[in-house]
Write a structure and sequence with these properties.
The complex is a heterodimer of chains A (194) and B (282). Chain A has 194 residues and is of the alpha/beta class. Chain A is 27% helix and 16% strand. Chain A has two domains: 92 residues, Beta-grasp domain (Ubiquitin-like (UB roll)), CATH 3.10.20; 74 residues, [2Fe-2S]-binding domain (DNA polymerase, domain 1, Orthogonal Bundle), CATH 1.10.150. Chain A has five helices and six strands; from the N terminus they run E-E-E-H-E-E-E-H-H-H-H. In chain A, helix 2 crosses helix 5. The longest helix of chain A has 15 residues. Chain A is globular, with a radius of gyration of 18 Å. Chain B is an alpha+beta fold and 282 residues long. Chain B folds into three domains: 47 residues, Uridine Diphospho-n-acetylenolpyruvylglucosamine Reductase, domain 2 (2-Layer Sandwich); 114 residues, 2-Layer Sandwich (Uridine Diphospho-n-acetylenolpyruvylglucosamine Reductase, domain 3); 102 residues, Enolase-like, domain 1, CATH 3.30.390.50. Chain B is 35% helix and 27% strand. Chain B has twelve helices and 14 strands. Chain B has a five-stranded antiparallel β-sheet. A four-stranded antiparallel β-sheet of chain B has the order 11-12-13-14, sandwiched between helices. A three-stranded parallel β-sheet of chain B has the order 1-3-2, covered by helices on one side. In chain B, strand 11 and strand 12 form a beta hairpin. Classes of the chains: A alpha/beta (194), B alpha+beta (282). The interface between A and B is medium-sized, with 32 and 31 residues.
């Protein structure tokens, strides 16, 4: 899907200036006309219908809305869409999609690792973790356990207790190097179990 | 949690930005990284009618190091400063403090000059500017001026910048020879605001004797507090801690009592000086 989606009357109040915001999202040229105060997270969700990016706290604390802006992870709730005109954005939808056959290798290594390690429960925080870890591993392909913890320190998860997410970071590093790397315990890694 | 309506302006040059700021006056606010400003807008603690967004002024995205020190442009992200090898060699306190600024994701967007202009007394970089004796350069249609750190911070969230001025760069002097620095802080959660933080610069003479011990404090005063603890440290760590506890002026809030923050100022003073000394000696 590409082209211009215009929803200029959506949430516009007097005092708002309205702007055309062309961006490249997940490799596709997209654009919409939005009020200046539209955050990038709302722009992606409301105007481009890319609802994979989740909005949690809306003030930069939780990390759920993390997307990649020109390859770097940023909080999309703390950036106005109008500020990123012409830039490249990667959302969770751009990391990988399960194909029709359900072949896990159609997912990105980080997504596969989350599946292998049971690194999500309710899934609300997951898009932010996936984008953060994708960028983190691009920078540091072989993180230690400590570095894996540091990598996800800016993202909150209220379900998992983080143990399986840390395991997924390490598993994703493994899968990035070798997509056929065997899963240590057949997809049921419970590092937090005693 | 949505900002109030505003008019957005995206100038492509500093000249255009300052002429816009002159036009909108007190109704305007500069938007750089927005990592402090956007939450303030979202919570409607502020609702400026105009935002002058400098993110398109690519000329301001630089970190330059020369014989005198490090100059950081208004659009240099914290992360760019933190990772600049030449800047780190010239003034190690920059990266030592920056790793304490929120999380990497925030540092990817937030700017060092923006955090100075925000003038938050719990901001790490305000403390570093004060401790290193740096300065901020501001431009307006009236001209350009350089404001020393000691005159830049007027109060909590209040800098010496006039409404029509744009802070275009910050300057951090090069670390002196035979010196060492450290930055320690304590926060309730990883990446959260410090309950108290202490930056230290220790200078030795060529024989290794301590000639200067200076500490900067955050979250325990209205503006960045810098103390010369050379004499106190010579009398012993407990004396230095006592001088620090007496000098700070913390407030109670939901995160910690004033008494606890005062206590931390003493404890972190010792830790920070020890660490800076160890670095000065290597």
């Amino acid at each position: 899907m590409s082209g211009e989606e215009t929803v200029a009357d959506h949430g516009v109040e007097s005092g708002d200036s309205v702007h055309l915001v062309p961006v490249t999202v997940n490799g596709l040229a997209r654009s919409a006309t939005v009020p200046a105060r539209r955050t990038l997270s709302d722009y992606l969700r409301h105007d481009l219908q890319l609802t994979g990016t989740h909005v949690g706290c809306e003030h930069g604390v939780c990390g759920a809305c993390t997307v990649l802006l020109d390859g770097r992870p940023v909080r999309s709730c703390l950036i106005f869409a109008v500020s990123v005109q012409g830039q490249e954005i990667t959302t969770v939808e751009g990391l990988g999609q399960l194909d029709a056959d359900g072949d896990p290798r159609s997912l990105s290594p980080v997504q596969r690792a989350f599946r292998d390690c049971h690194a999500l429960q309710c899934g609300f925080c997951t898009p932010g973790f996936l984008t953060t870890i994708t960028a983190g591993l691009a920078e540091n392909p072989e993180p230690s356990r400590e570095e894996a913890v540091e990598m996800i320190a800016g993202n909150l998860c209220r379900c998992t207790g983080y143990q399986n997410i840390v395991a997924a970071v390490l598993r994703a590093a493994e899968l990035t190097k070798d997509p056929d790397a065997p899963n240590a315990d057949d997809g049921h890694r419970h590092e937090g179990d005693r | 949690m949505k900002p109030a309506p505003f008019s957005w302006h995206g100038p492509a040059s500093v000249a255009e930005a300052v002429s816009l700021l002159a036009e909108v006056g007190h109704e305007g606010k500069v938007l750089a990284g927005g990592q402090s400003l956007v939450p303030v807008l979202a919570m409607r603690l502020a609702s400026p009618a105009h935002l002058v967004d400098i993110n398109k002024i690519a000329d301001l995205a630089y970190v330059r190091t020369d014989a005198d020190g490090v100059t950081v442009g208004a659009l240099a992200r914290h992360r760019d400063v933190e990772r600049d090898v030449a800047a780190g060699a010239a003034q190690p306190l920059l990266a030592q403090a920056l790793v304490n600024v929120a999380h990497p994701t925030i540092r990817n967007r937030g700017t060092t000059v923006g955090s100075l202009a925000h003038a938050d007394p719990s901001g790490e970089m305000t403390c570093v500017l004060a401790l290193t004796g740096g300065s901020v350069t501001a431009v307006s249609v009236r001209g350009e001026r350089t404001i020393p750190a000691a005159e830049f911070f007027l109060g909590p969230l209040e800098s010496a910048l006039a409404p029509d001025e744009l802070a275009i760069s910050a300057y951090f002097p090069r670390a002196a020879p035979f010196s060492g620095s450290a930055f320690v802080e304590l926060s309730r959660r990883h990446g959260d605001y410090a309950l108290c933080g202490v930056g230290t610069v220790v200078t030795l003479d060529p024989d290794g004797a301590v000639v200067s011990v200076r500490c900067g404090y955050l979250s325990v005063s209205d503006t960045p507090l810098v103390l010369d603890l050379t004499q106190a440290w010579a009398a012993g760590p407990e004396e230095a801690a006592e001088v620090a506890r007496a000098a700070v002026d913390p407030a109670d809030d939901i995160h910690a009592t004033a008494g606890y923050r005062r206590h931390l100022a003493g404890v972190l003073t010792g830790r920070s000086i020890e660490r800076a000394l160890a670095r000065a000696r290597t």
